[in-house]
Amino acid sequence: MADNLLQESIYQLQRDWDCQLFEKMESTLLEFTHLKVEMENAPPTFQNLQGARPEERAVEDRDAKGNRDS
User: Fold this and answer.
1) Model pTM greater than 0.70?
2) Of the candidates 43, 39, 42, which has an alpha carbon nearest to the alpha carbon of residue 64?
3) Which domain holds residue 61?
């Protein structure tokens, strides 16, 4: 009887821990997704262009020069 109770308690603890872990993973994934969308919708800046491909930088440089001439 005590052995069954102990096993049930261990099972319940594992299930609770698994649920908490899943909830944490889910909230982290949602937060990451939200930040990713924010970054994709953010206007280009010098910092996020540093990792851009050369052709992307050329377009941004051309656009920046065009805006200064206006």
Assistant:
1) no
2) 43
3) 2-69
